[in-house]
Amino acid sequence: MRVRALAGVVLLTTLTLTGNPATASPARPAPPAPTGLRALADRADLRIGTAVDMAALADDDAYRAAVAREFNTVTAENVMKWEATEPQQGVHDWAAADRLVDFARANRQKVRGHTLVWHNQNPAWVTEEAFTPAQLRAVLRRHIIDEVTHFRGKIWHWDVVNEIFNDDGTWRDSIWLRNLGPGYVADAFRWAHQADPKVKLFLNDYNNEGVNAKSDAYYELVKQLKAQGVPVHGYGVQGHLAVQYGVPADTLTNLRRFEKLGLQTAFTEVDVRMPLPADPIKIQAQAQGFTALLQACLLADRCVSYTLWGFTDRYSWVPGVFDGEGSATPYDENLSPKPAYAALRDTLALAGR
Length: 353
Ligand code: G3I
Fold this sequence. Notes:
It is a single chain. The chain is α/β, with parallel strands linked by helices. Helix 2 (37-43) runs parallel beside helix 15, helix 8 (133-150) runs parallel beside helix 10 and helix 13 (280-299) runs parallel beside helix 15 (339-351). The protein has one domain (37-351): Glycosidases (TIM Barrel, Alpha-Beta Barrel), CATH 3.20.20. Strands 1-2-3-4-5-6-8-9 form an 8-stranded parallel beta barrel, surrounded by 6 helices. It is built from 15 helices and 10 strands. The termini are close together. The structure holds ligand G3I. Ligand G3I binds at residues 77-78, 120-121, 162, 238, 269, 317.
């Protein structure tokens, strides 16, 4: 938005210096004002994204059209995870992930890579734990180098490590922590950087919006990583909210403290679920949840993107995981926009002025 505003000032100045109102050609009708999220985000100099379900992208024309129309960034909901890319050791399947990268290129969208190291959705051959710690470290290194190399130059951000802390700020138990100790995080960032020195490398988690034990753990970790010269560039806040829990009031304060450490910030998986059935108050609270995070991003200095974890209830992961909850996205099952969509649109429109 600042860049756009400045560009506007320069243009005006040029016109003032060189334009001659008496001889200027008649004014053309102004182009129609942008209305979709993508056009408004472009004008506000913000990346707005969605997680993409590759089956839906292939089969559902309305879904595919909306991904292209409404977003300037995409994230693979599942197909860049390790279980998808290397189902058997040494046998890679990049096909689905490549299709997303091709779609993004055709539609001039950036790609957030999700995710290199996680406790979940690893291939069975990894989690059977038949490896010694030294072998497991070599296997993890190979995976990171292979995947980042495969997509070198095509990915904007990588979520390098995902969900490494518990909510109380202790390290989450995982095959990586058990076998390699916490040093696996620094290793993962170094290996990713080695494979693609230009890509921005992110930490990513949920329940880390505000200042709390989990975000404190990240804050201390980032200080340590920076002191060791580890290439870490971004703090990803997933933003899985629920109307019954509200939005942490210190979200902006939290983003700012990470930005002061030299990181970019991003909302990476925003949705706002609710206990079903929906009612007008829940629907209003949902719209406020989406816009509260968007406002924090727009008010922060280095918040570079805002990604929805799916934009339609037709394919949302929420009902499958939270019993009795759902309606978590800005479009309903029929791909009709809800008040949350209008709220996001109105906020972006204000930001681009
Ligand atoms: O791939 C299998 C397929 O072979 C099988 O036929 C089918 C039958 O259920 O399951 C498929 O696996 C599913 C997978 O998504 C791929 O579609 C799993 O059951 C399902 O549990 C899995 O869920 C994903 C979940 O991560 C796994 O933890 C969700 O789609 C995805 O939205 C979700 O995303 C995570 C982020 O990566 C990290 N942050 C939290 C977020 C929400 O949980």
